[in-house]
Design goal:
This protein is an alpha+beta fold. It is built from 16 helices and eleven strands. It has one domain: Cytochrome P450 (Cytochrome p450). Pfam families: p450 (PF00067).
């Protein structure tokens, strides 16, 4: 495990103790990219609960790997603000916030309420039959071939197609949308990411104009027509809300499914366990979400704060490494073991607090339906013997490709 190497000392604040400085290549380094979940689980053995991560690509920040600390940060916006939480560059002369992520209470509630009913458990359940039909249509397309590239034939089209229907966006542009998201979220080249950002901005601006004139029953139209407190949202509010949902909906469940199916393909006995206990599907989904969570949670300190004896200052960046927090042995004994009978405790796969993922109920149902329908029709499968599994760099953790055979 890499520790303090050739760190850019000039970027490390004077109040940061040298012994807490680490350069570990989080989200971008070779050790992380070789096996990211194993890498993050091992941090509990090699790193203090809070340390200062130096990363020339994504910036420096305090990091926590403890479930309790992340839970505190997520639930206390008076200390940890989400303002500027996303690293994507925006024109300062035409700035927009990623809504509702970058809006703190009490204003956050105004935006969140607009879509609460759309993503409620009751509303999401209405999509179940559609999810099952789509899952089977996708499986029909490759089951007789005896092999498939899971990421492009099932892992991507299942959640992304559902998301596009919810948003009111065209299915025929799915691959274009995903390409933009991949370039923006995973490219290490600023020019590539910038081109993707501009492509998304131009497209969504056009869509908003069209749906303002001709609204439909999709999420974008719902945002446009919302009147919180009796007043419409501004053009920048509508744009920031739409942009954030667009990015958030294209990559996270996709990456989660890829991680889970890699594990399923490598653990036939555990596949059989899932199949043999269909009444435990909800617990099975929750445990798989814990073990294979894919995102991080960035904040900025609004005031000085001491945690675990570490003095942090107002303006410091703070990152909860959520997958590592889900491996906290103080909360989840034997944390890397997939245990479907594990006592239920809050997981951080969908963050927490007021900024918990608005699509959490949708994501859980998508994973549940995908598991049920796939294992019903393809109970036996494996990773192709010559496959080399590699992972995308960036803030959403998942393998680039997953060739399966049966």
């Amino acid at each position: 495990m890499a520790t303090t190497q050739a760190t850019p000392v000039m970027d490390i604040p004077a109040h940061v103790p040298p012994e807490l400085v680490r350069e570990i290549g989080l989200t971008t380094g070779p050790e992380f990219l070789a096996a990211p979940h194993a890498f993050m689980a091992k941090l509990h053995e090699t790193h203090p609960p809070i340390f200062y991560s130096v990363n020339p690509l994504i910036g420096n920040s305090w990091c926590t790997i403890k479930h309790e600390d992340a839970f505190f940060a997520l639930r206390h916006p008076e200390y940890f603000t989400t303002a500027g939480a996303t690293p994507f560059p925006r024109d300062p002369n035409n700035y927009f916030h990623f809504i509702p992520l970058e809006i703190d209470p009490p204003h956050h509630r105004k935006y969140r309420a607009i879509l609460d009913s759309t993503f409620s458990p009751q509303s999401v359940l209405r999509l179940e039959s559609y999810m099952r039909r789509l899952s089977n249509e996708l499986i029909d397309g490759f089951i007789d071939a005896g092999e498939v590239e899971f990421t492009t034939a099932f892992g991507r089209p299942l959640p992304v197609s559902i998301f596009l229907d919810l948003m009111g966006l065209p299915q025929e542009m799915r691959d274009t949308f995903v390409g933009w998201a991949v370039d923006l979220l995973h490219s290490q080249d600023r020019m590539t990411a910038g081109l993707a950002m501009r492509g998304i901005e131009a497209y969504l601006a056009q869509v908003i104009v069209e749906k303002t004139a001709r609204p439909d029953d999709g999420v974008i139209s719902t945002i446009i027509q919302a009147r919180p407190g009796g007043e419409p949202l501004s053009e920048r509010e509508i744009f920031g809300f739409t942009f954030f949902l667009f990015i958030a909906g294209l990559d996270t469940v996709f990456a989660t499914l890829n991680n889970i199916w890699l594990w399923l393909a490598q653990n036939p006995d555990r596949r059989r366990e899932i199949i043999a206990h269909p009444d435990q599907i909800n617990a099975q989904v929750e445990e798989l979400l814990r073990v294979f969570s894919v995102t991080f949670s960035g904040r900025t300190l609004t005031q000085d704060l001491e945690m675990r004896g570490v003095q942090m200052k107002k303006g410091d960046k703070f990152n909860s490494i959520l997958p590592a927090c889900n491996y906290d042995p103080d909360v989840f004994p034997d944390p890397t073991r997939v245990d479907f009978n594990r006592p239920r405790k809050p997981i951080l796969a969908f963050a927490g607090g007021v900024h918990s993922c608005i699509g959490a109920h949708l994501a859980r149902l998508e994973v549940k339906v995908a598991l049920q329908e796939w294992l019903r029709r393809l109970p036996d499968f494996a990773v192709r013997s010559d496959a080399l599994i590699s992972y995308w760099p960036g803030g959403v953790v998942g393998p680039k490709s997953l060739p399966l055979v049966w």
